[in-house]
Amino acid sequence: MKVGIISFAHGHANGYANALKQIDGVELYGIADEEEERGRQAADRFGSIYFADYQDLLKEPIDAVVVTSENQKHLEHVKAAAEHGKHILCEKPLSSNVQDAEEMIRVCKEKGVILQTAFPVRFNTPIQHAKKVIDSGELGNIVAIKGTNRGTNPGGWFVQKEKSGGGAVIDHTVHVVDIIRWFTKAEIVEVYAEIDDKLSDYEIDDTGLLTMEFDNGMFATLDCSWSRNKSFPTWGDVTLEIVGTNGTLSVDAFAQKMDVYHEDGVNWSFWGDNMDQGLVEDFVQTVRVKGRPSISGEDGLKALEAAMAAYQSSERKEAVAIKDL
Fold this sequence. Notes:
With about 325 residues, the chain is α/β, with parallel strands linked by helices. It is built from 10 helices and 15 strands. About 45% of the residues are buried.
């Protein structure tokens, strides 16, 4: 199987490229990037061919592409890949706005290609164990979930709203919303959020607190802020406290680590899961068997809707129903 990557704008492109190189029978055929220096360096690093124009890559005999461009460009790149009959793994958030995400899903269905959303946290062992506990019924009915996905402000195009669609809220809400939906099979009906830019000099949201109500009566809260400073020993976290009628379960997706104490402070030494590897292997297998993606474009859309509702809620200072987006 031959796979291409469109753009190394997103840092996750490196992880996905590494993952592709580890899979038997898969060739990272080409890397397209409009920034020549970045693209050529990536192609040299991963032993691939550089393409200045992604359209030229799509004309090559490849089976699939990984789209890791800026959020605002996802629609353009996904539509082009679908037009060429290439299956697609698209970085999260699926797009910078709901309308573009809906169009991506429509085009991929029309062209008969796979569209999978890149939510690697599903392939984390603690998260998978938590799902097994929930599925077993041991916790009883899930009534509430408290989540965090706090991180470091990545800068660059992430803080340019015209390219990203927003800041911390669109960047981090989608991961945890996807996990909650996966755990509970419940859908969000309403979002209330308070959002601000408290922590940096950029004019973009870096703090956000969301409360979400679901169609099964459950509610969830989420801190999705870029609240980790440069001296913090980890880039971020994904934690969930799941409250059921029979018990409470706490899960930390990144607890597979050692804290190393030295004269410069605490160093985070991670030894655990390679979630990117799990995600990419899952996508490759789906393409091989022409199956249904485990994380669909619709899953990406549902997570994006929560973030978009949060922005509207913060602006209006009231709860926003998903159906009103």
